[in-house]
Write a structure and sequence with these properties.
about 725 residues; binds iron/sulfur cluster; 24 helices; alpha/beta; N-terminal domain of TfIIb; 5-stranded antiparallel sheet
Length: about 725
């Protein structure tokens, strides 16, 4: 108490001294030179001086405000009030007119981040490139040839056809030497290069590239449309720079549909896995702090003490790139405790209705007598001759004990006989999750494991229950999943872990500890908590995922281990549950119209599309330096189709068989190919090969509206 009083007296004395100083300061100047002050005397206005505060005040002056955001591949899309004076941005503040989200939860606003607040500084930065530039040596050659020949295309053709001049401007690349050039001249050079290349080599020798139509629909569309109109390919982008979580279309069949960050508030248990929210989702990070007041438990999984870690109740720090092992061990715990030793009706009902776990899979025999998981059993295998029967996987109906093809599978999506069946209503069908029953027959399957060094991937033998359907042994995806995760059940043969502490067998908590460094007990407890919370809340457990794990090699398999956790616990599709991923979730909303515009489908179709990754791999010669065989990472249980082959061989094969577009497509100018006279009633003698499908049964039927091809966002 005494110390507090002493401190207050000291503060009062300091304030009084400050006041006296301020008053004295205003009397020290002669009366005529006294300037106006604010009432508290802390700000003085001196218009009589050469340096005064007028510029500072003008710095913030404006004649109007506009609403905008920062469309620079930032998915925050915060609403900003931009102050403009004489057509120049002077400053920005956050808009505060977001609609309320309700009285029982925090509001979105104010949204923003330090990068956005300083955005106008980027806009007017003196280092920003605002004019075209050209390599000086090239420009000199072009101007000389242009002057002499009097034609831009002829000038470009001469320069690029002369090995010596070509070498000179190409050798100058990367060494600076760029000079500013006017827009007219820059456009003329670019146009001449396009015209010459099309005439001499073909339009498919050009290529266009632009990222993120969802962030810049108009600018992407006009460039893509130009390429389509001249017959040049547009390269894909997401696959090339690895932002897109490929696991999303693999698992869900669509592009990264995730909840808004406001849904973090609804989660009862939240894991931040490879997502550093305060840095990468700055405007939404407040939800994290707020949701914790609601009792939410927050786990951060990050190898480093990332900014997000300060939010966390617990921090798991696996070695970089080992997240998949941690997730697999958590899946092991969930399957063991909530599907085998325990039973949660909500989970079982969910996976029966919304996942492929009940579907039947053939077990194929290998020459050495072992068996491996093969393809889904389909309605075609049961004798169904409908056009899409090969695309209707089959499950076992526990009520009738008969195999049946439920509605809502791929075969119902694009066919006439699938009309009205594109839904997940099961009706009276009750999918059997497992074939394990008293007296069930069993078989051992060979499963790959990639965690051991030595001579390459090894295998484990695990038993699964089997039935014979349509003349072949089958089991369910769920039974195979338990085998893959090493979750033993009584009565099944094979080699299994002895328990959570068995570090020699894949997917146990102890096994992951040796790989990730996360203590086995902690991994087990977090998995248990996650699933218990999901069971108690009917799926309100969430994983916020980010590029931290998405950019690792084979990130799709890492992600699938995360997604399995969410699907096993019934979280996907539930408010406050599922995966929340904030890379690759941007979308072009008016897609139908945008696609027509950007691919010039109103003028010519189909447009040429090309996958960016193999394009650069092949055309920059990277494949020559790739010493790894295509089978380096192939499964030891596979058929050896990649043995002795190079990745470039596989790319070439897929292009040749029409599985993937490939540009350029011919060893000749397509314009010349098109000009060749066709024999009566036939195609040109050496004309372009049509895209063939060697195995018609392997192609989805095409009787109804097809999804748009060449989707690029
Ligand atoms: S997160 Fe930052 S950069 Fe992105 S839109 Fe919001 S304020 Fe702008």
């Amino acid at each position: 108490m005494a110390r507090r009083q002493a401190r207050r007296r000291a503060e009062q004395a300091a304030a009084a001294a400050t006041e006296r100083l301020l008053r004295a300061g205003s009397t020290l100047r002669p009366a005529g030179a006294r300037a106006a002050t604010t009432p508290d005397r802390r700000a003085v206005f001196r218009p009589d001086q050469r340096v005064n505060d007028t510029p500072y005040r003008e710095r913030w002056a404006h004649d109007r405000t506009v609403r905008s955001t920062h469309g620079v591949n930032c998915t925050g899309s915060c609403s900003w009030k931009v102050y403009v004076k004489d057509g120049l941005i002077t400053w920005e503040t956050q808009q505060t007119d977001y609609p309320t989200v309700g009285p029982d939860r925090p509001e979105y606003e104010p949204r923003g981040c330090p990068r956005g607040a300083s955005f106008s500084w980027y806009t007017y930065s003196p280092t920003r490139v605002r004019h075209p530039h050209a390599r000086g040596v090239l420009l000199e050659m072009y101007r000389e040839a242009r002057e002499r020949l009097g034609d831009p295309v002829a000038a470009w053709a001469e320069i690029t056809s002369d090995p010596e001049r070509r070498r000179r401007y190409q050798a100058a690349r990367g060494k600076g030497g760029l000079v500013r050039v006017g827009w007219d001249e820059a456009l003329e050079i670019a146009a001449a290069a396009h015209v010459h290349t099309i005439a001499a080599h073909g339009p498919d020798r050009l290529a266009g590239f632009s990222p993120i139509p969802a962030m810049s629909m108009a600018s992407h569309a006009v460039g893509a449309r130009f390429m389509a109109l001249i017959g040049a390919p547009m390269l894909s982008f997401y696959d090339w720079y690895a932002d897109l979580p490929i696991a999303s279309p693999q698992v869900f069949g669509d592009q990264t549909d995730v909840p808004e960050s406001g849904d973090w508030w609804d989660a009862a248990y939240l894991m931040l896995w490879g997502s550093n929210v305060p840095v990468t989702r700055t405007p939404d990070a407040h939800w994290m702090a707020e949701a914790r007041y609601r009792g939410q438990k927050v786990i951060v999984v990050s190898p480093d003490y990332a900014d997000a870690t300060k939010f966390a109740d617990e921090w798991l720090h696996p070695h970089p790139g080992t997240d998949g092992a941690l997730a697999m061990a958590m899946g092991h715990v969930v399957l063991r405790e909530f599907f085998v030793d325990g039973h949660v009706p909500y989970f079982t009902d969910y996976v029966r209705r919304f996942t492929d776990l009940p579907f039947l899979v053939s077990l194929d025999a290998r020459p050495d007598g072992t068996r491996v998981p093969g393809k889904f059993l389909t309605a075609r295998d049961l004798g169904d001759e409908d056009e899409a029967a090969a695309w209707k996987p089959v499950l076992l109906d526990a009520v009738t004990d008969r195999p049946t093809a439920p509605a809502g599978t791929l075969g119902d999506r694009w066919t006439a006989d699938g009309e009205g069946r594109w839904h997940l209503e099961l009706g009276a069908v009750k999918p059997a999750l497992t074939l394990l029953a008293p007296g069930a027959r069993t078989a051992e399957v060979l499963l790959p494991r990639f965690d051991e060094g030595g001579d390459g991937p090894a295998t484990v033998r695990r038993g699964v229950p089997v039935r014979h359907v349509a003349g072949r042994p089958v089991t369910t995806v769920f039974d195979l999943l338990l085998a893959a995760y090493g979750v033993r059940r009584d009565g099944l043969p094979g080699s299994w872990p002895t328990g959570y502490e068995d570090a020699s067998s894949p997917c146990t908590p102890a096994w992951q500890e040796a790989i990730t460094s996360v203590p086995a007990g902690q991994a087990t407890r977090i998995a248990r908590e996650f699933a218990r919370t999901a069971a108690a809340t009917r799926g309100r457990a969430m994983i916020v995922m980010g590029a931290g794990t998405n950019h690792w090699f084979h990130s799709d398999t890492i992600y699938r281990a995360f997604l399995s956790l969410l699907l096993l616990t019934g979280c996907q599709g539930v408010n406050g549950g599922g995966w929340a991923h904030y890379v690759g979730q941007e979308k072009v909303r008016p897609y139908t119209g945008w696609q027509q515009l950007s691919t010039a489908a109103d003028w010519v179709r189909p447009s040429r599309q090309m996958a960016g990754t193999p394009y650069w791999y092949l055309h920059t010669g990277q494949w020559r330096y790739d010493r790894q065989g295509a089978d380096a990472l192939s499964s030891p249980t596979g058929k050896g189709l990649f043995a002795g082959r190079h990745t470039a061989d596989l790319v070439a094969q897929s292009a040749r068989l029409g599985w993937m577009p490939s540009c350029p497509a011919f060893d000749a100018n397509p314009l010349d190919v098109g000009r060749r006279p066709a024999p009566p009633g036939g195609r040109p003698p050496s004309g372009p090969p049509t895209r063939s499908r060697p195995d018609a049964s392997a192609s989805p039927p095409r009787t109804r509206t097809r999804p748009p091809t060449g989707r690029v966002c």
